[in-house]
Amino acid sequence: MENPKNQLTIRTIVQMLVFIVLAPFLPLLISWNWGWWEAWVYALIGILGFVVSRVLAARRHPDLLAERAKFMQHEDIKPWDNVLARLVGLGGGLIPLVAGLDARYAWPGVDFSLPVELVALALILVGFAFGSWALMENRFFSGVVRIQKERGHHVVSTGPYAWVRHPGYAGALLTYWLTPIFLDSLWMFIPVAFMTIVLLVRTDLEDRTLHKELPGYKEYAQKTRFRLLPGIW
């Protein structure tokens, strides 16, 4: 019988290959348009952004990657996040999938100009940078919602957390909403809208959990009033 640690390692490797390597290349693999430079840039940003952010985060918080690698293996995950975390993974795969199908079958839409695409690209990079900053700042940036008592879980209020309470979600949403413009696919807004609903629900439930169970979070929330977007919510 395989050692559970080996099973976890194999599972983690497979998940990384699928979501971090394969998924970003779906637009190219499905459309088979290898001259689609925007899709190449999208794939490289996704892969390099993941690698660079994790390397930098590991330097500051060596135990963070181990926490994130366990993902759905934790026993104290909030029951509702067992569903929402999987929906986030589903949405993350649907977005590049729809982009590839749109390009392959030339679904009706609007062609965005190069200057508009470049502005979208710049904002995508801002979203990636903001989310990565949150990852590097927060030692407790887990892939699932749980109170990490065994790791001394406490409130983090520095860096992007001084602006909004959930900067990782904020950066991700900015990236998601600009990607359809950069990849010239109006149909991508459908899975993006799905992902937005999931993340808004998850943000609300996570924030309620932290208010109830994480010491000092109520006081932090009084100072940093907004969850995702300053002045709005």
The multimeric state of the shown protein is single chain
Beta-strand percentage? under 5%
Stretches with pLDDT under 50, minimum 5 residues: 1-8
Tally the helices: 9
Determine the N-to-C terminus distance.
50 Å
* Largest sheet entry: none
What is the 3D shape? globular
Structural class: mainly alpha
**Which radius of gyration do the C-alpha atoms yield?**
18 Å
Instruction: Give the topology string: H per helix, E per strand.
Output: HHHHHHHHH
> Helix amount, in percent?
55-70%
What is the average of the pLDDT values? 90
- Total number of strands: 0
User: How many structurally independent domains?
Assistant: 1
Structure description:
- It is a single chain.
- Mean pLDDT is about 90; it is low at about 1-10.
- The protein contains nine helices and no strands.
- Helix 7 (about 165-180) packs antiparallel against helix 8.
- The protein is an all-alpha fold and about 230 residues long.
- The chain is about 65% helix and about 0% strand.
- It has one domain.
- It is globular.
What secondary-structure arrangement, pairings included, does this model have?
Layout: H1 4-22, H2 26-31, H3 37-60, H4 64-70, H5 79-105, H6 114-137, H7 167-182, H8 189-213, H9 217-223
Helix pairs in contact: 3-6, 5-8, 6-7, 7-8
Characteristic key phrases:
233 residues; mainly alpha; disordered N terminus; 9 helices
Give the structure's gist in a few sentences.
The chain is mainly α and 233 residues long. The protein contains 9 helices and no strands.
